Every structure is written in structure tokens, then in C-alpha cells.
Amino acid sequence: LDLDRQENLIVSMDGSPNAEFWIIDTNQDSAVWSGALAKASGMKLGPTGSIYFVNYQRFLYKDEQGTPKENSEIFKRLNGNATDLDFDVNGNLYVGGTGSTIDVVDIYDDGGLTSGVTEGKNLDTLDIISLKVYNDYLYVLTTTISSDQAIYRIPILDNFGALGDLELVFDWSGYTNKQSSALCFTLSESGDLFVGSDADTQPLTFIQDGSPSGFYSSILTAPISYLAWGNGYYLYVINKTEETNRVQRIDTRMVGTDYYGRP
User: 207 and 185 in contact (C-beta within 8 Å)?
Assistant: First the structure.
């Protein structure tokens, strides 16, 4: 899911027989936003109002509002399978997933499927679950073949998206003793972390100055599989269980980090 500047919510749906994007306005009225070639594992609104999304494959997709499925397009071919993506303040789009590769995509490049895609970083044994730009850093939630999970940050070195060296931010597996899996994360305006997981007793974890604690643990239900800030105090979460399939919003009483792609 993602939101625009007017707080309209756009959700990727695995519809039958076709995947679609739906928009829900602030009055809770909903409609189809566009068709789609696949359900998104990660999505962001781009600066021109397009949706850019990935789905565990080596492709970056792009959709415009009102586009039927047959006119949807594969926008770029990537260097590895992609799970999530995010924009920086200069309009660079970072894409990463399994295969340990972070690509930097120039969304204004119209030279074909492979043009405008640069390998920004190879993380060796680390696969990416989720990623987020905060200030001049790219934060990544990673896992290994042995399911060791951690959050790192990588400095963004210039306006073209060059990336520096990894720095450990939080050892999730060490904190949970591998009793739960982190599924997504984001940051507040002040740099505090929110981590969504499949932990029954603490589905949303708030990490401030390296110190973790449960956030609304008595109210929220596991798993929390995706997070996106609105434009104020609300944090929107996807909560899908065998019984329910819903989007919830949480009044965090704090402001989220900027989402630079939103037009």
C-alpha cells in the first residue's frame, strides 16, 4: 500500500481473475485505480503520479491511473529478484530483494528494459526483505540463508545514488532469539524504527535509541506485513490472517519520515 498527498490510500489487490490497484479516499469510498500484471510485494507512488512496484521477480513494473491490465508494462529488468523499493530526495529509485543486489533506477530513462538500471550495492550473503530511505541513508531489513535478520543502513554518497558501506543498526534475531520474523519496517521523522513482524505478543515493535518495546501490543494482531506512513500521525499497516484481510491505521502521535516519491 501507499498514500498520496491527499491521504488517499492505494492498495495492491490480488484480485480474481486479475490483480488490481484500488483507491480508498478519505470518505472511505473505494474504486479500482488501475489493472496490474501482478500483485505488488512493494510499491511506491512516483513523482509523476505513476505507481512503481515489484513482485519478487527481476522486474520493475509501472502503472498509470486508469490503465487496464492489458496496457500495463514491465518498466525495467533488474539485476536480481526484487521485494521492495523506495525513492530518495533526488528521485533515485532503490530496488532490492533476494540475490543481495540493490539497484538504482533512473525512472526518467526511456532507453529500454535494461537502460537506466545501475547496480548500486552487492550485499554478498544478505537478502533484502524491506528497504527505506531516511535522510541521507538507505535502511535495509535483511536476512541470511540461516534466517539471521538485522537492519543496516548504507550512506547515500551523491545525487546519483551511489552507496557506501554497511552499518549495523539493530540485530533483530539477537533481540528475538529467532522466535519471530521481521516482515517490514519504517522510520519516524526523528529516526525511530517501527518493525512489523509475525510475533503474536508484539506484532509491532518500536525501537528508540536502540531500545525495543511493543507498540499497541494489546490491540494489534500478528502478522503485520507492510507499513506506510500517511502525511501526518497515522501509520497504515496491512494485517492479513486466515480470518481477516484488512488495512488498519494507527495514531502514533508522531510524524513519519518523508516519502519522497509522492507527487
Answer: no
Q: What does pTM read for this prediction?
A: 0.96
Q: Between β-strands 224-229 and 211-214, what pairing exists: parallel, antiparallel or unpaired?
A: unpaired
Report the phi/psi class of residue 146: left, alpha or beta, with left for phi > 0 and alpha for psi in -120 to 50: alpha
* Whether 81 contacts 87, CB under 8 Å: no
Instruction: Measure the CA–CA gap between 53 and 44, rounded to whole angstroms.
Output: 6
Instruction: Report the DSSP pairing between strands 127-134 and 137-143.
Output: antiparallel
In degrees rounded to 5, what are phi and psi of residue 223? -90, 155
Q: What's the rounded Cα separation, in Å, for the pair 63 and 180?
A: 34
For every residue of 90-159, DSSP letters joined together read TS-EEEE-TTSEEEEE-TT--S-SSTTEEEEEE-TTPEEEEEEEETTEEEEEEE-TT--EEEEEEEB-ST
For 43-82, the pLDDT digits (tens) are 999 998 999 999 999 999 999 999 888 888 899 999 999 9
Q: For residue 38, what is the DSSP state?
A: S
> Alpha-carbon distance 136 to 90, whole Å?
10
| Three-state SS at 40 | coil
Give 74-116 pLDDT, tens digit per residue: 999 999 999 999 999 999 999 999 988 999 999 999 999 999 9
Cell readout for 228 is: 506506510
Task: Classify 72 as helix, strand or coil.
Answer: coil
Whether 195 has a pLDDT exceeding 90, the answer reads yes
Residue 87's DSSP bridge partners are 93
